[in-house]
Design goal:
The complex is a heterodimer of chains A (567) and B (211). Chain A is mainly beta. Chain A has helices spanning 3-16, 150-156, 261-265, and strands at residues 39-45, 48-53, 74-76, 79-81, 92-100, 122-129, 136-145, 174-185, 188-202, 208-223, 226-239, 244-257, 268-283, 287-288, 293-306, 309-317, 322-331, 341-349, 359-362, 365-368, 375-388, 391-416, 419-446, 450-462, 470-471, 475-485, 489-498, 501-503, 511-513, 516-527, 532-539, 558-566. Chain A contains three helices and 32 strands. Chain A has a 22-stranded antiparallel barrel. The longest helix of chain B has 16 residues, at 2-17. Classes of the chains: A mainly beta (567), B mainly beta (211).
């Protein structure tokens, strides 16, 4: 073991003795994979991460799977992401800035080119939402995360004809500005936002595809138990290198009735909705949607025949796909204090994300994003949590099997400077994959002042692992919690270790992401009486600078500070 | 020699400072709640508020001495009561460093500095205060050409920003009604690469209590 590793472990043990906090806010909404390691969380860009919780069941990541809760997330190619978020904040004004640490400043003149580190990149965000006047409010937001942009910048910038962002020359992975009006009152919460956005999405070919939304308009309305969403997107595609350009005009949205209070009082809960996308493509595009339209109706049921027994099911179907997610959970009442729960959950369907495009066009090849046949995953789990005084102790054990898991049948690779792209099609693993996982956690809670959780997990998967897009990590340990001093100063920590993960299909040789320690720390002055919050957060203090995804960008130590005044 | 001179000056001011009442002492001692029910932190927060102007000299440290010359800085500050023994501080300073190394031709570098932190004024050290916090520096060369980006000093032709931390000693030594004058000695480390960058600054401030 190297001296550096010993140093890291020693530092980590020392830090673990400190109280820590579970939730360290990342750069922006949807980037939570940055501050999680209770599984496989690999970040290559604010717009692309592999996020799979230990024991989640199946080999897919969470953002690949459609669910009704994700209706208002952004569809980035075939994944659902909260980044870049178009969800209005609470009434407040805020400013956020940060930087990957390691710009040279006055170190610069002391070093020749070969001895200099590569450029570090910042983030910047500003926005407000006004207090309501007669229920009406206004909001505006400008934000971009330049972190995770440097490694691929020189390759990507050849494909676009300007800096492809609202400001700066780091070719950030997204840059968004929007403004709009809203109304809150009389049981109605509605908003209309309009803006312009630059975003790079990651294709199955491993390309970064630049999309310029100009404009993007999104309207939302929530009243009673109904949620409506409608978006108009004029998406411009381009490849400056090949003098190609194209435009996609897209309407998408959803209507969703969720179980309300009256419904929840009954034995049967019911929800239903429909999501749709319709596109009109013109010129050269790099993705395609079969028939230019997808309509996805779905229904949700919850049945509680016994007080301690519940059955949940979400089912969607259309002319191309079907997807079923259901679960059964039983609370064993004989030991109420132990909180013992036995459950079973299933996922089955033809596509994990049935609203995504169906094809990607790359280098003369058409990559099919929809494999023939269907997948099925079944998981059985037992969970228990007991508390004694200020202590919590819990454990979860799960076993799962999956057949027909989505994978990629790679037929060839293409190099583009430092990036590697692939040809092939989305396919299935025609074998059963089995997984066994366990987690234990110990928590200490002392009111709002102090909380600490130590947790660890292990998972072993049997199956043709070289056909997995990602072979998940086997084990992790995390120490999280926070101090809230005098109710006005918060010190939060999260210290984590995860073991190796491996990308199998996006390069000729598998890419191993070595296990590492991560430490995040956040300090916040709070003035609740005045609604003022001053926050400084350090992310990934201990870890090595590595690229965590194929064709991704370096994950680096960075500092983010936020000033927020709520109204 | 420079450090000795600074320490000597600091010692003089430290002695003088005990003749003055610190703003923080003021904020607590004159609080009517002090003699009755202890105030909650959220009541103390912003119960006093001060603005200040500051000027002094900033000294590059270590290798940085070969890069830029010592420089005068000026700035504005805000102080507010936070807890009983802590004040919050926000500072915005500006300086212009003359360039010593002229591989890329520009006469100097503009630098804006933002600081956010806390000053502690525990009863053992009153009226002197010890503080610390985060710093954010923005730098940009006064001229130069972007085509020289890869030459030593070239990155400063574009905007460069870096964060770091600071610790400081705040020695108030004169008080007149709402006005206080003091000495501020500050050590900062920026999280730059290949090495961290350190600077020392020393200056005087005049602080006015608004409420």
């Amino acid at each position: 073991m190297s001296t550096m590793s010993l140093h890291k472990i020693f530092a980590s043990v020392c830090l673990a003795a400190l109280p820590a906090f579970a939730l360290i806010e990342p750069e922006t909404e949807g980037m939570e994979a940055v501050s999680r390691d209770d599984g496989t969380f690999l970040v290559g860009s604010p717009t692309y991460a592999f996020d799979r919780k230990n024991g989640a069941g199946g080999i897919h990541s969470e953002s690949e799977l459609w669910a009704p809760e994700k209706l208002r997330m952004r569809l980035l190619f075939n994944r659902l992401s909260e980044t870049p978020s178009w969800t209005p904040h609470e009434a407040s004004i805020w400013l956020r800035t940060g930087n990957e640490l390691g710009d040279m400043i006055y170190q610069d003149p002391l070093y020749e080119k070969d001895d200099r580190p590569s450029n570090r990149t910042p983030i910047l965000e500003g926005g407000f939402r006004s207090p309501a006047f007669m229920g009406l409010w206004a909001t505006a937001r400008l934000f971009q995360v330049d972190h995770y942009s440097d490694e691929t910048m020189r390759t990507r910038n050849r494909y676009v004809d300007d800096s492809f962002a609202w400001f700066g020359e780091n070719w950030p992975m997204f840059s968004t500005a929007y403004g709009g009006l809203g109304y809150t009152g009389h049981g109605l919460n509605a908003s209309v936002l309009a803006g312009e956005e630059y975003v790079w999405v990651f294709g199955e070919s491993s390309r970064w595809i630049p999309i310029h939304y100009s404009p993007r308009v999104e309207a939302r309305a929530d009243f009673w138990d109904l949620s409506l969403t409608l978006a108009y997107e004029n998406a411009e595609f381009q490849n400056r290198k090949k003098s190609e350009s194209g435009t996609r005009t897209e309407w998408n949205g959803s209507a969703y009735y969720r179980c309300g209070k009256l419904c929840k009082d009954g034995m049967l809960w019911f929800g239903a909705g429909v999501q749709f996308r319709t596109v009109e493509d013109d010129g050269k595009l790099y993705t395609g949607l079969e028939d230019d339209v997808v309509v996805w109706p779905f229904a949700q049921l919850r049945l509680t025949p016994l007080k301690d027994l519940s059955l949940d099911a979400t089912f969607g179907v259309n002319n191309r796909d079907w997807l079923l997610q259901d679960s059964v959970e039983y609370k064993i009442a004989a030991m109420p204090r132990l909180g013992l729960v036995v459950g079973e959950k299933n996922v089955a369907g033809t596509r994990l994300n049935p609203i995504a495009d169906t094809e990607e066009y790359f280098d003369g090849d058409t990559i099919s994003l929809a494999a023939d046949g269907s997948m099925q995953m079944h998981e059985l789990y037992v969970r228990a949590e007991d508390s004694l005084s200020v202590f919590r102790l819990g454990a979860r054990v799960a076993g799962w099997i999956e057949h027909g898991a989505e994978t990629f049948d790679t037929t060839g690779f293409v190099n583009d400077r430092n990036l590697v792209y692939r040809h092939g099609d989305v396919a299935r693993i025609d074998e059963w994959i089995q997984g066994l996982s366990g987690e234990v956690w110990l928590g200490i809670d002392y009111g709002e002042m102090f909380s600490f959780t130590a947790l660890g997990g292990y998972e072993h998967i049997w199956g043709p692992s070289r056909e997995f897009e990602v072979s998940p990590v086997e084990y992790y340990a995390a120490f999280e919690g926070d101090w809230l001093l005098n109710g006005t100063f918060r010190i939060a920590h999260s210290l984590r270790y995860r073991s190796d993960a491996r990308w199998n299909l996006r390069s000729s040789d598998p890419k191993v992401i070595k296990g590492d320690w991560y430490w995040d720390a956040s300090f916040e002055q709070r003035f609740p009486k005045y609604g003022i919050f001053l926050n400084g957060t350090l992310l990934h203090v201990l870890s090595d600078d590595v690229v965590q995804t194929p064709n991704g960008n370096y994950d680096r130590l960075r500092f983010v500070c936020t000033v927020r005044k709520t109204f | 020699m420079r450090l000795v001179r600074l320490l000597a000056i600091l010692l003089v001011f430290a002695v003088c400072s005990f003749a003055a009442e610190t703003p923080a002492q003021d904020s607590v001692a004159k609080s009517p709640a002090k003699d009755s029910v202890p105030q909650s932190p959220s009541d103390i927060a912003f119960s006093h508020f001060y603005v200040s102007v500051e000027g002094g000299e900033i000294y590059p440290w270590g290798d940085l001495m070969d890069v830029v010359e010592n420089s005068v800085y000026v700035g504005l500050g805000v102080r507010y009561s936070y807890w009983e023994n802590f004040d919050g501080i926000v500072h915005f300073d500006y300086t212009y460093f003359k360039n010593r190394m002229k591989v890329v031709a520009y006469p100097g570098v503009h630098q804006a500095m933002g600081r956010l932190g806390l000053d502690w004024h525990g009863r053992w050290i009153r009226p002197v205060m010890i503080g610390g916090g985060f710093i954010c520096n923005w730098s940009r060369a006064d001229g130069g050409e972007e085509r020289n980006f890869d030459k030593p000093g070239g990155t400063l032709v574009d905007n460069e920003t870096e964060f770091g931390y600071f610790v400081r000693l705040n020695v108030p030594f004169l008080k007149y009604e709402r006005l206080r004058v003091g000495f501020d000695l500050l050590w900062e480390e920026l999280w730059t690469l290949p090495k961290r960058s350190n600077m020392l600054s020393a200056g005087f401030y005049a602080e006015w209590r608004l409420w």
